[in-house]
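Crash report, auto-generated. Payload:
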Amino acid sequence: QSEDSDVWDDKALIKAYDKAVASFKDA
Amino acid sequence: EGYSPTLKWQQQQVAHFSTVRQSLNKHRNHWRSQNLDSNVAMPKSEDEEGWKKFCLGERLYSEIEMLPDNEDLGIDYIKVGFPPLLSIVSRMDQATVTSVLEYLISWFGEKPFTPELGRWLYALLACLEKPLLPEAHSLIRQLARRCSEVRVLEENKNEENISALNLIICLVSRYFDQYDLADEPS
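Recovered output after restart:
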């Protein structure tokens, strides 16, 4: 998962949020 | 009815959020030491209006219509607000995290939910250390209640807003142990 990667970029929190929000649609 | 998430989805979000917090802690020192762009001027902790403008942008803050930006000029973060970049949130101490959370929850008490607000609330919750201070405890409970109120009033079933509100309610109730505020398994 990207969160575990050493390349945790400056926008990582934003991406994590967007991913979490998008996941509701697929649930 | 029909808006609340499944228990499985809620459990997945709590697990994901926990991983995000671990990564944030791991990378905090790196991002704290990075130089900020010259246009990023973080307000002082007690500057409520400054923080609202910083996070949400002057456009939203002032509720004024502005012409779309010329794409060639790039994004004007002063107008649209700075997103919760790691290089920004890693510089915020717990007192500032709590203060900004308070300012944005106060804003949300009177204004509609927006994606910009959702991103900042999520980022601040990710920065909030456990065990919670009494002040933070009260704040996040207020946040979850407000999310519930707004969710009930969502008539157009804007999926993104419902999802974002569900996420915040889920994290407050199940990650920060405020189980009385949790959505029942559906």
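Post-recovery validation: The CA atoms of residues 6 and 21 of chain A lie 24 Å apart.
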